[in-house]
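Lab notebook page, bench 4
Experiment: in silico fold of construct C2
Operator: M.H.
Input chain length: 303 residues
Purpose: comparison with the prior construct
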Amino acid sequence: MRARGLQAHVAVLLLLVLAACGGGSPGQADGPAPLRISAIPDRDPAELAAREQALAGYLRQTLGVPVEYVPVTDYAASVNLFRTGDLDLVFYGGLTGVQTRRQVPDAVLLAQRDIDAHFRSVFIANRSAGLGKVDDVAGLSSLRGRRFTFGSESSTSGRLMPEYFLAAAGLKSATDFAGPPGYSGSHDLTIDLVQSGSYEAGALNVQVWQDRVAAGTVDLSKVEVVFTTPEYHDYHWLAGPDVDDRMGQGFTDRLREALLGLDGSSPTEHQVLEGYGAKALVATAPENYDEIEAIARQLGLLT
């Protein structure tokens, strides 16, 4: 009897500990559900976290709900977690946005930055390669036989559009470089790899290049811009189809209004926009990314 009494006492204590740690019954809420935001990991993780935390603070203040930034390991993870409903709002590149909307047809396109309707990529080279600047897309043929790296395999500005412009210059990345192309994983790493000489040339997001040059973290005696591409549509925000179910009826519309209401009129708003390299967020539409989808199909990046 004494042993059974001790076991019962231990069981009660265990239940109390679990309850204190949030181990109650499934679905039991301890407070308002957090809005879970994320972004493709296309740049230095510390810079990315600072930018997304600033947005989280703005949305928390504006919408009056908890907001949680959820970092992801790679581009594919951001798509998968959104598809399974574990992310509510994600800042995607053009290609990952198209991939996500194909998997989650009811995803809601909310906004883009003012710079995203006129986005560009840059091709850079280590100066020791002796490539020099080229005047047009056709000039990219000078990259034939070079060691070359893209960014992430799913990057719009670091892979998809550079691959498209290379194809327009008559190059196939699978066969026309000195070995298979690299995939650095982020725009920052592309700069670092070309600057170090690990690759002779690479392609990346023009905004990251400009930010790194402005910050003085590129050695311009070692690396230079070879070509800046024509414009295309790129980054944008998608909200999950179940956000209203989680956060309350009409919340998706409130979220869109909060994003489009960012105008830099307060220190908080200025900080958020500065982190994204924008002066405002603007409305966008699915057809703005039709070109991205067509190119992705052409290059075999969509099935």
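Observations: The chain has two domains: 35-116+234-287, 120-228. The first strand starts at residue 35 and ends at 39.
Next step: discuss at group meeting.
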